[in-house]
Every structure is written in C-alpha cells, then in structure tokens.
Design goal:
Blueprint lengths: L5 H16 L5 E8 L6 H5 L8 E2 L2 H12 L4 E10 L5 E9 L7 E7 L3 E13 L4 E10 L1 E14 L3 E13 L6 E15 L3 E15 L4 E16 L10 E13 L3 E13 L5 E5 L1
Parallel strand pairs: 1-4
Antiparallel strand pairs: 1-2, 3-4, 5-6, 6-7, 7-8, 8-9, 9-10, 10-11, 11-12, 12-13, 13-14, 14-15
C-alpha cells in the first residue's frame, strides 16, 4: 500500500537537498530526470540548460527548476546532486506530476445579454504526455456555443508554439429582432527569443451574421493580431519577482475596418515574509 504522505516527505527531502547542493560544487558528469509517470522525458530534457562536464552552477539549476515548474504539469519540482565514486556527481531533477485530466463539468451560467445557459467542458492537459492541451466547451439555452481548442507550447524547433481555436456561437440579439450567428477560427503561432521575449501572431477569421425572417446582414473580418511580450517572472502562476509587458496590435479588416492597440503592464517586487507587491495595469 502506498504511504499517504509520500509527497510530503519527498518535498522536505527536495528542499533539504537543494540547500546542501548550493554549498557543494562538483563536476556534473550526467543529468537524470526522476518522477515522470505520464510526461515524456524529452518534454523535460529540452527545458534543462545546465551543461555536463562542468562544475555545478546552482543558479542555472534553479532556473531549470522554474522552467519545468512553469510547464504547469507538476505539483513539486526540485533538484539534488548525487556524489559519484570518482568525485564527480549526478544532477537529478525530481518532480511530482499533477492531475492532468479533470472530469467533465456541467454548470449553469447567466449573462445579461444572452440569459441562462447550461455549459459543459472537458479539459485534457498533457495529452499523450507531450504537454499538449485539448479543450471542448459547449453551451445550450440562451447561448448555443461549441468551441474546440488544441494547444502545443513547443510543437517544433526552438520554443515554437502552435494552437488552434474553432468556435460556433449563436444567440438572440438583446434589442433587435435578429439572431446573431458567429463562426470563428484562430490560429496562433508563437516563438520565444531567449528566455524573456515572446512573439506571437494570431490570424483570425470571423463570420458574423444577423438574421431574421426578412433578411440577413453578413460581416466578415480578418484579424492578424500581433503580440510582443517581455516576461521576466520567475514563476508564471505565482511570481515572486519579475516584469511582464504585453503589446498587442489587433487589426480588424473587413467591411468596417478598424485597429485596436492593447497594452498590459505587470510588475512584481519581493518584500518581507515571502510577500510580493504587484502592480498591474
């Protein structure tokens, strides 16, 4: 029978070994990845930048740990060194996988424009152990919607990401005697440049119809959204320090063309007692 507190004991072991390793700098002869159950080994290996046959650099190992944790696949990530008989050492990265598949959810929702709807969602994270996400969302009632998302944050090359979103949505207009029908398809392609800069382009095709028994108004838009992001946060989900700046240009090209410029600024500063001061605009 598996002990109930295995993960807890491993956590304290990881912390203890991390502290000891920072005071010990042997030559790293090899690197091992421990604790994978579903995730493919190469998904973790490509996030590890510590070289072999050089002295241990705890700062690089810590950055590796943060990158692995930022994948969003693990509850705990840590590292330790294992001394070898020849005086060198093995650098070991430990991790405990999160639950990557949530059960289907059904829940009601209310919107002032669309009214009550009954929604259902299925999310599969880390699909096939390759850090891919599949998501299916559907809604009936005041809004009839079907949406499918697939995302791969590193589909090929060096940190090249690819995701696709297909959406069908229909509901009654709040004031006009018309039914609104929206069909949308978005393809997002992104790439990290170094550790801090990400560029993404997201071409989107939108078909929007306003229907009634008399006539139909049709609108078509093409929106090649461009996004440039500077991100120095240490942990994406719970940053202690860092900066995130996002600049986006959203051209809506169609019958009535217009452009939107979006900006976002986030700053995180560590203060006392493991507390972080954050500013967001």
């Amino acid at each position: 029978m598996r002990p109930v507190f295995t993960g807890l004991f491993l956590f304290f072991s990881f912390v203890f070994n991390d502290i000891n390793a920072k005071e010990y700098h042997p030559i790293i002869e090899k690197i091992e990845i421990i604790g994978l159950y579903k995730t493919k080994n190469y998904v973790i290996k490509r996030e590890i930048l510590h070289p072999i046959n050089v002295k241990l650099d705890s700062s690089i190992a810590d950055l590796d740990k943060n990158r692995i944790f930022n994948l969003g696949l693990f509850d705990i990530v840590s590292w330790q060194i294992l001394p070898l008989k020849n005086g060198n050492a093995t650098l070991q990265y430990f991790m405990i996988e999160s639950i990557n598949r949530t059960p289907p959810l059904i829940f009601p929702s209310y919107d002032e424009e669309r009214g009550w709807s009954l929604n259902g969602i299925i999310v599969m994270k880390n699909f096939q152990g390759k850090n891919r996400t599949l998501e299916l969302f559907t809604s009936v009632g005041g809004q009839e919607k079907l949406q499918f998302l697939i995302n791969d944050p590193w589909v090929f090359g060096n940190h090249v990401s690819l995701s696709a979103l297909a959406e069908y949505n229909t509901y009654d207009h709040l004031f006009l005697n018309r039914l609104i029908n929206i069909k949308k398809f978005t393809l997002r392609i992104g790439k990290w440049y170094g550790e801090k800069i990400k560029f993404r382009i997201s071409p989107t095709i939108t078909l929007k119809n306003f229907l009634n028994s008399t006539d139909t108004l049709n609108y078509k838009y093409f929106s090649p959204t461009v996004n440039l992001e500077l991100d120095t946060r240490d942990i994406f989900w719970n940053p202690e320090k860092g900066v995130r700046i996002i600049q986006s240009i959203v051209p809506m090209l169609g019958e009535n063309s217009f452009y939107v410029w979006n900006q976002s600024f986030s700053f995180y500063f560590p203060i006392i007692y493991n507390t972080t001061l954050a500013f967001n605009t």
